[in-house]
Every structure is written in C-alpha cells, then in structure tokens.
Please model this.
Amino acid sequence: MTGLGGTPTDPLDRYQVPVESTTFSVVLRPFDPDSDDPMALVNRRLPGAQE
Model:
C-alpha cells in the first residue's frame, strides 16, 4: 500500500499489500429523535448480520 495519492517511485514488491476481493454493505436506519434512543438502535443486531 502506498497511501493516498501518487508515489514518485514504485514501492518494493515485499512491501506491497496483496489485492483481495471484498464486499461491504451499509444499512440506513431512520429514527425519531423525540422517541427513539440512538444508542439502543446502534447496539441492535440486524437479522442476518455477520461479524
């Protein structure tokens, strides 16, 4: 990994981070700030969620 932006020289192979496929998802949960507790919502597990 070379960081953000360009690198003026090519990094040595032994310092390269190998490329891997990965996926992620984002869940948006609407809430009513007058009646819902945000901390209770953030700690609630979603069905099918993996750690």
